[in-house]
Amino acid sequence: MKKLVIFLLLGLVYMNISLAQQPACDYKVEIIIDGEEFEIEDFKWRMRATKIEGKSTNITGTAEIEDSNGKTVKSYKPWTSQSISKQKTSSEYTPNLKPGNYEITAEISVECDDTNKDNNIDKKEIKIKGEIEKANNKESKNEDIEAKTENTLTNDADNKQTATKPAKTAPKTTDEEIENTIQLANKNTQKIQESKPITSSTIQTPQIVYESSNERVKGWIMIFLLTLSILLNIILIWKR
Question: Do 113 and 27 belong to one domain?
Answer without folding.
Answer: yes
